[in-house]
């Protein structure tokens, strides 16, 4: 098995011992993205919707660095510190994904890195 690391300057740099994404065969595994602005590495200002959009913008940037796009996401996991934001995630996703939508899980968690309230990771089939 051969692993290829994927990197995009248009997404936040890894802040730990991980790659932004790893490609193995026809699958690309995108690491969790939080709402960091890749230029400043700071959490974006604004409301929950703005933070959710930044998460999906970051995922899109890494998918594009892999030579793909969000239409090839087959599995998406969204982590939320407040599940009442679930409806907003659904609205935001309509701007980033087309039917057939990816399989998805939404997981309520106690905390996320840098104190953010949303994170998402994905698997692409390319």
What does this protein structure show overall?
The structure is a single chain. With 126 residues, the chain is an alpha+beta fold. The chain has a single domain, classed as 60s Ribosomal Protein L30, Chain: A (2-Layer Sandwich). Helix content is 21%, strand content 29%. The protein contains two helices and six strands; from the N terminus they run E-E-E-H-E-H-E-E. A six-stranded mixed beta sheet has the order 1-2-3-6-4-5, covered by helices on one side. The longest helix is centred in the middle third of the chain and has 18 residues, at 48-65. The two termini are 17 Å apart. The model has no long low-confidence stretch (mean pLDDT 97).
How much β-strand is present in the residues? 25-35%
Number of domains: 1
Euclidean distance between termini CA atoms: 17 Å
Describe the largest sheet: 6 strands, mixed
Kindly identify the CATH topology. 60s Ribosomal Protein L30, Chain: A
At the first level of CATH, the class is: Alpha Beta
- Name given to the CATH homologous superfamily: RutC-like
Neighbour order of strands in the largest sheet: 1-2-3-6-4-5
Q: Which word captures the global form?
A: globular
């Amino acid at each position: 098995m051969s692993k290829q690391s994927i990197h995009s300057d248009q997404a936040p740099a890894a802040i730990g011992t991980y790659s932004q994404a790893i490609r193995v065969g026809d699958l690309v595994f995108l690491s969790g993205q939080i709402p960091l602005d890749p230029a400043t590495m700071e959490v974006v200002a604004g409301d929950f919707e703005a933070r959710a959009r930044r998460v999906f913008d970051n995922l899109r940037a890494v998918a594009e660095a892999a030579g793909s796009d969000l239409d090839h996401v087959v599995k998406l996991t969204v982590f939320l510190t407040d599940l009442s934001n679930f409806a907003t995630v659904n609205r935001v996703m309509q701007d980033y994904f087309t039917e057939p939508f990816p399989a998805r899980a939404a997981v309520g968690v106690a905390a996320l890195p840098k104190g953010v309230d949303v994170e998402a990771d994905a698997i692409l089939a390319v």
